[in-house]
Design a protein that fits this description.
Blueprint (H helix, E strand, L loop, with lengths): L1 H27 L11 E5 L3 H12 L5 H13 L20 E6 L5 E7 L5 H11 L4 E3 H10 L11 H14 L12 H4 L2 H4 L23 E6 L5 E7 L20 E4 L3 E7 L1 H6 L2 H10 L4 H15 L1 H4 L4 E7 L4 E5 L5 E6 L3 E5 L1 E2 L2
Helix pairs in contact: 2-3, 3-4, 10-11
Amino acid sequence: MGLNIFMNRRKFLHLSALTAPLLTTKKSLANNFTDTVKPIVVSTWDSGMPVNAEAWKILSAKGRALDAVEAGAIHIENEINCCVGLGGYPDRDGIVTLDSCIMDEHANCGAVAGIERIKHPVSVARKVMEKTPHVILVGAGAQQFAVENGFELESGELSESAKKAYAEWLKKSEYKPIINIENLPLRQAGLPAAKAGKKQNGPFAPNFFEDGTANHDTMGLVAMDVNGNLSGAVTTSGMAYKLHGRVGDSPIIGAGLFVDNEAGAATSSGTGEEVIRICGTHLVVEFMRQGYSPEMACKKAVERIVKRDKAKAKTLQVGFLALNKKGQYGAYAIQKGFVFSVKSNNENQIHPSKFIL
């Protein structure tokens, strides 16, 4: 019996030595908080500062996180921004299409994709969540639903900055949109004349603009209210000059946004196709459930993308941002340049994200 006790003790000490580094790794990248920080809101990019400020009006008044993230998203949808709202850059056919989603602490969620001429897609997404049994509506159906629920149909005219940028892109890409091609008979739309502006289905949206900035500034935000409940929202006009009808990760629950009130919440920004391939934000939240800090959870998700195709990863950007139930936050990106904004009772600032490549 004494020998068994000795052997069991040796096994215990051996296992402890093996697991201690793992536990250290999981916790090492967490913020140094001893108490839960709430309320708190974190958002992608430096443009998240005014977004957070709008959300904070609700959070600081002991309001619900869901209301706060919607208010923050609405704020940036009202701005003229390259990558969010009706003032954003259009697709390659000159049409602005918007994507958005929202998710609360009960896993209730709603989304719209490819919606045109509606100013606040995040609020339409919330209506989908609250008024229908569905999760996502797209295109003309999403627009019809919005109008039926009291949303005004806007003109669809491009903002001045979008007009200028689109005109320049058309010159350099040599793309020639076919006016009203959707109204042509199929046999006529397939004729060489109708295909003259297409290059093997391209040109496609560039991953980076000529000035080196990434072609995606999706606004994603996640928040925790005074009751410890999490919610999140995402809103974007998508990649500039994308194929008409292209949808990235932003409106897809588990890709651009995921909320689990037991583990945490996460959002993303970047080349959405790469995020979709790994169910990115769901993966981040699951890593947090396993005990990883938000920063380490984001890093492990980014590593998953890079491992799949390192050469391709060097040509694009993806960043993840996460918040856990203790109010600890963290982010990680493929490349340098991703930043995020934080607002709580303790701080109000922009942080640079760590990166892999």
